[in-house]
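Q: Hi! New to this. If I give you a protein sequence and the SMILES for zinc ion, can you show me the bound structure?
A: Yes, paste them in.
Q: Okay, here:
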Amino acid sequence: MEEENKYCEHLNTKRFKTTKTKVCEECVKTGGKWIHLRLCQTCGVVLCCNSSQNQHAQKHFEATGHPVVTSILPKPWSKFAWCYIDKLKRSLV
Ligand SMILES: [Zn+2]
Ligand SMILES: [Zn+2]
Ligand SMILES: [Zn+2]
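A: Thanks. Here is the predicted structure of the protein with zinc ion bound:
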């Protein structure tokens, strides 16, 4: 099996964007609450995850087709990238 460490083309990159933003940019506008945050690797917007009420990252993907987000968490060992198109997760630890 050669499946190990194989990612989709979207996740197969060496560099991932980072951000200092610590809020969901859409929830801030509407007063919504988020649980976890995701950073869009295409345009750099920070939005909330699918466990959050408004699922802005999911909606952003549906609206724009930007395929990859990364988690923004204080714990580096929880860091991952997610591809919405292929539904694949890549650990970035
Ligand atoms: Zn992909
Ligand atoms: Zn949000
Ligand atoms: Zn985007």
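A: The longest strand covers residues 68-72. Let me know if you'd like me to explain how to read the tokens.
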